[in-house]
Write a structure and sequence with these properties.
The protein has 598 residues and is of the alpha/beta class. The protein is 36% helix and 15% strand. The chain has 3 domains: 92 residues, no CATH class; 117 residues, Rossmann fold (3-Layer(aba) Sandwich), CATH 3.40.50; 272 residues, 3-Layer(aba) Sandwich (Alkaline Phosphatase, subunit A). The strands form 4 sheets. It has an 8-stranded mixed β-sheet, with helices on both faces. The protein has a 6-stranded mixed β-sheet with strand order 3-4-2-1-5-6.
Length: 598
């Protein structure tokens, strides 16, 4: 820990403003996902514990839906309940423990909280050569002993809402204690904007110890000012803010040079207004952004979740130029492999990362290359530090399956406002004389009032699938909006051109994006029910300034004019001409790894 953060911790501890009584479900999710990435890939897997009466809220059902990408190796479920044996759950057969020897299983995941010990005893009897993974024991080994299901949403962002509402609705004699807890909650994640708002309220009401709150606020403000002044003197740093799923449609206003969010960063930047991801999801898009190879180059879901520093031309050059490389992310989203050349900081919340980054830069002599990844605030479940209404924790797996019309658009606006506000606050604390890159990795369907279908139905709708945002600012860069057609495949080249004056901005007549097969069983079931099976096993997409062309693995072709998705032009001369142009320039075949078996 750097000296500034140590001093901060000392301040809030001295004044009894720490909160150590809450376990964020995001932290639990991070641990579970990291376990699956490390232990389940390329394994033949069985889940032990189907859940009574095939409950869709059982451990097994949650694992098979929420973590489908990592658990492609699951072939069956095991349960000692004879009523369940011979049935199936989400298409997977449920077998008896004594049948385990016939399935050649590599790993058994114990998907039960209350029966783990008895399952281990049965496993020793019926599958002594099988490795096992006890999720709750793994959590206990990391100091997390919970007495509820690990997948229950207990986000600290949701906790902030609960504490605030409890304070607002409390009787007068209870308000002071709850307001103190709310202040401590915001201080926990270094959200100083809202911490100061509620500190001011506490002082205004002159609750007990209000002078202590005033003193605490002044001490924190002095510390922030010290960090700010140190960073004002810095030059030459490069900071990349990677905001997962930030949509261009939520950033770009109708009036040029005025942005709906992040205006403090974008108003002085070169802003790419027509830049697109290479895929609609993070793993596939980030693989291409880092390596400059299209997603179909290899199956990223085999073992390519995390890449090497040398696979990223930008980071490799930064290291060779003498930058200190720092990665700010959560543990399971590190992006880059363990490497002595990279300094890792594992954190969850946006404000935690911004504060630590500012403190570490203020304390560092050499130029830094900071890569900060924010995977939660603007990606499903769309939770942030201030919600106007009670947040509902829906996942991306629920989009197109569950009706979110009553809340999701308002929840997104809360998150956009929160991210905008926090970035504006920290813009004054981070160095101003270096280069800042801000980008998102893909777009996303939040809610479609006209239809309710999963993401694979939007391959031609770039605003809801690939249209993202990228901006670069720093010394010598004059604000402009670059409306040339660009792809995140060239992310490294764009940064290197503007930051180091190396190479040229690519000129693209057409950009290319790709959809992998859909892993989620529920998505596939919806496709079967609604006649959408053409779209679930892979899609190639191509976009020019005038047209978009998509072809599925089953051979279904679509061509649309940009801005008009009602009329498929594939049978017209106009549409056929664009389709043939694509085929003459690109290989539209599909890799074998997309051939999935269900």
């Amino acid at each position: 820990m750097n000296s500034y953060e140590a001093r901060y911790d000392s301040i809030i501890k001295e004044h009894d403003l720490t909160r150590n009584d809450f376990i964020d479900s995001t932290k639990i999710h991070n641990i579970i996902l990291e376990l699956f990435q490390k232990k389940c890939l390329k394994k033949k897997i069985a889940l032990w514990g189907a859940g009574y009466n095939n409950s869709m809220t059982s451990h097994a059902a949650v694992l098979l839906t929420k973590y489908a990408t990592c658990l492609q190796g699951v072939v069956c479920l095991i349960d000692s309940c004879k009523e369940l044996q011979g049935k199936d759950l989400l298409g997977y057969p449920i077998i008896a423990p004594e049948q385990l020897k016939d399935w050649d299983i590599d790993l058994v995941i114990i998907s039960s909280r209350s029966s783990a010990e008895s399952i281990k005893q049965s496993l020793h009897q019926f599958g002594p050569d099988c490795a096992s993974l006890d999720l709750y024991q793994e959590l206990r080994d990391q100091g997390i002993d919970i007495h509820y299901n690990f997948y229950e949403e207990r986000s600290f962002y949701s906790e902030l809402y609960d504490v605030r509402v409890a304070y607002e609705n409390a009787k007068e004699e209870e308000k002071a204690a709850l307001l103190w807890k709310l202040i401590a909650s915001y201080l926990k994640i270094k959200d100083f904007y809202y911490a100061f708002v509620y500190m001011d309220r506490y002082i205004e009401k002159q609750y007990d110890r209000y002078e202590e709150i005033r003193q605490t606020k002044e001490q924190i403000q002095e510390l922030i000012l010290e960090v700010q002044k140190k960073n004002e003197k810095r030059k030459g740093d490069i900071t990349i803010h990677y905001i997962d799923a930030l949509r261009a449609v939520d950033v770009l206003g109708e009036k040029k040079d005025t942005y709906q969010v992040l205006n403090e960063y974008l108003k002085d930047s070169v802003v790419f207004t027509d830049i697109h991801s290479t895929a609609p999801t993070t793993y596939e898009s980030m693989y291409a952004t880092i390596t400059e190879h299209m997603p179909y180059t290899e199956n990223v879901y085999e073992d390519r979740f995390i890449l090497g520093l040398d696979e990223c031309d930008l980071l490799k050059k930064a290291y060779e130029k003498g930058y200190s490389i720092r990665l700010y992310s959560s543990a399971e989203w590190r992006i880059f492999k363990e490497d002595e050349r990279i300094h890792y900081v594992d954190q969850i919340h946006l404000t935690d990362k911004l504060w630590t980054m500012a403190c570490e830069m203020a304390e560092t002599k050499e130029a830094t290359f900071n890569y900060a990844y924010y995977p939660w605030e603007l990606h499903f479940p769309l939770l942030c530090g201030y919600h106007t209404k009670e947040p509902v924790a829906m996942g991306f797996k629920d989009v197109g399956i569950k009706d979110m019309s009553g809340f999701i658009e308002g929840q997104l606006q809360d998150c956009l406002h929160y991210v905008d506000q926090e970035f504006a606050f920290y813009a004054k604390i981070l160095p101003q004389n270096g280069y800042t890159v801000l980008f998102s990795d893909h777009s996303q369907i939040v809610y479609d009032p006209e239809k309710c279908v999963p993401f694979y139905c939007y391959a031609a709708d770039n605003d809801r699938s690939t249209h993202c945002i990228m901006a670069i600012k720093g010394p010598g860069i004059v604000h402009k909006e670059d409306d040339s057609l660009q792809s995140l495949l060239d992310f490294n080249k764009l940064v290197e051109h503007y930051v180091w004056n190396e190479g040229k901005v690519p000129e693209n007549e057409m950009i290319h994006y790709q959809y992998y097969s859909t892993h989620n069983k529920q998505f596939r079931d919806v496709a079967k029910q609604k006649g959408l099976e053409d779209y679930i096993d892979g899609i190639q997409g191509f976009r020019s300034k005038e047209y978009v062309y998509c072809v599925t693995k089953t051979g279904k072709e679509e061509v649309y004019r940009i801005g008009d998705l009602k009329y498929n032009l594939i049978q017209t001369k106009e549409g056929k001409r664009f389709a043939e142009k694509v085929k003459s320039q690109y290989d539209i075949s599909f890799p074998k790894f997309l051939e999935m078996h269900y």
